[in-house]
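User: For a benchmark we're assembling, each entry needs the component sequences followed by a predicted structure for the full assembly. Here are entry 17's components. Please fill in the structure.
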Amino acid sequence: MIQAKQELATVTIGAGPAVLGQRRSARRRHIFLELNFVLPMAIILLLVIAAIFAPQLAPWDPLSQSLEARMAPPVFAGGTSAHLLGTDRLGRDILSRVIWGARISLVISLAVILITSTVGTVLAIVAGYVGGWLDGLIMRITDIFFAVPGILLAILMAVILGPSVKTLIIALSIVSWAPYTRQIRGEVLQVRESGFVAQAKIIGCSPVRIMATHIFPNIVNTLLVLATLFIGIVILAEAGLSFLGAGVPPPTPAWGSMVTDGRDYVQTAWWISFFPGLAIGLVVLAFNFLGDWLRDKLDPRLRQI
Amino acid sequence: MLQTSSAPLLQVEDLQTYFFTRRGVVKAVDGVSFSVAPGETLGIVGESGSGKTMTSLSLLRLVPQPGGKIVGGKVLFEGVDLLKLSEADMRDYRGAKISMILQDPMASLNPVYTVGEQVAEPLRQHQKLRGQALWSKVIDALRLLRIPAPQARLRNYPHQMSGGMRQRVVGGIAISCRPQLIIADEPTTALDATIQAQYLALLKDVQRQTNVGMIFVSHDLSVIGRMCDRVAVMYAGKIVETAGVRELFNHPKHPYTAALLASVPRLDQKVERLASIEGQPPALIDLPPGCRFAPRCALADERCTREDPPRVQVGEKHFASCWRASE
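Assistant: Structure for entry 17:
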C-alpha cells in the first residue's frame, strides 16, 4: 500500500513539468480557436481599419448631399450599388458615414480612456499607498463622482461649454474616472502589504519609486481589463450623448446622431438608423467580450465584476 | 575570524519604539541598548512578540505605519545618529550601508522583475552604476551567494527558482552594495532544515569574506548558537541578558535565559518531558511595575514585582537585568 503510494507520488512528480508544458502549449494553440477572443478581435480590427483609412475606404464624401438620391434603400432591399447601405434624408451615403463615424467613436473613446485611466490609476495608487487623510479625501471625492448621474452631468457640461468633440471628451472623462480609482485602490492595498514592497523600502527606494516601479506593474493587469471594458461603455455613452443632441454637433458623422437622424423614418427608411445602431451594438459587444476574455486570462480573482 | 576593533560599528542606546493604538500604548521596544562591532555577529533571541523584529526595523527607521513610532533613544551608526537624519538621508543608508534580509523569500522578490533586475536595483540607486559595471557587480553578488550559473540566472523570474535559491537572491540583494551591517530577521524560518543549514553556512562565509557586521534575529537557540559571537536575550520589549555566546549557553545568569535553554530538546540526555516556561509573556499595554518576567519566574520575590531590576555586570562582557543575577 505504502509502496504503491510512493510509486504514485514519484509518477506524479515526474510527470509534473511535462504535463504543465503540454497544458501551456495547448493553451497557446487554442488562442485562435477561442471564439470569444477571435470574434471581438475581428470586429475591433475592422473598427480600427475603418477609423484609420476612412478617407480611402468610404466610397462617398460623408457630407455630400444629393437630393435625387435621398432615402435610397440599401442594395439588398431594392437600392442601387452606388449606395450599398442606402442614403439618409439628405442623400448622404450611410456606408460612408458609418465608416467616418468609426473614426469619431474611436478617437473620443481612446482619448477618454487615456485620460481616465491615467487619472484614476494615479489617484488610486497615491490613495492606497500613502493612506491616512489623503486616502480618505481621494476616496470621498471618488464616492461623490459615483453618486452623480454621469449622463446628466455630461449633458449639463455640453450645454454650458457648447457641444464639440473636445467638450465630449472632457465631459466623459469627468464622469468615468471614479471606477478605476475604486477598483485599483483595492488592489494597491493588497500589494502594499507584500514582502517585495517591504524589501523595496529596505534597499532605500523612495515612496514615488515604490509606487511607480513596484506597485504599478503589479496592478497593470487590472488596469488593462478595466480599460478594455470601459472602451465599450464610453463608446455607448458617446453615442447616447450624440443621440440626445449633446454630443458631436452635426453634420459630423457620429453614430449616435445618425441614429437620431433616422428616428422619424424608422417605418419608411429603417436603414438610416439601423446601420449606425448595428455598428454601435457590435463594437460595444466586442469590447465587452474582449474585456471579459482578458479578465479571465489575466486575473481569475476579478471574475465578480 | 573575529576582527573586533574597539570602536563599535553600531551603538544603540535606550531605544524606545511604541505603538499608539486605540487600546493604549504598546511598548514594543522599551529601552533597548546594544552594540555591534565590525565583522561581529550579534544574535537577538526571544519568543514571538518580544520585540526582536521591531528592534531591527527601528534601526532602519521602518517601523510599521500608522501607529508605530520611535519615541526615544539613539542609533549611532559609525558615530552618526540615524534617528536625527532626514528621511532622504536615511534612504542613502538603507541597502547601501545597512541591509536587511527578511523572513520570507517567496514574498521578498517582486514577481514582475527578473532576479538580475532586483539585485541591480540597490546598485543603480546608491552607486549610480549602469551597463557593464553594474552587471559585473550583480554577478559578483550572486556568485558570493554561490548561485550556480549566475549569468544565466540573471534572466530568471522569481517563480522559476526554488525557495532556497530565492533566499540566496535576497541575500545577494542585501550584500550587493557591500554594506557594513546586515540585519537578518529570521532569514531561514521559511526554509526546510537542509536548505537552512546550507544558507546559514553561506551567510557565515559571506561574512568572513566581507567582514560585514551582522545582527541575527531568531527564536531558534540552536541557530543562534551556530551563527553568533554575542547574544542579547529579549523579553517583553527589553534585553534581559547579553553575553558571549559560549558564556551565555554555559552560564546563563537571568532566570529567563536559563529557562529558555532548559526547554531546548537535547540528543545527549533522555528526558520524559521537555521543560517549559509556565504562563504567558505579559501584554505590552499597561505593564505593571517591576521585572517583566517576575510573574513567571521561579526565583521572584516581593522586590521583583515592585522595582525594575538593575543591569548588572556578572562577568566579562556579560550583563543581566535581574535582582538576583549576582547571587
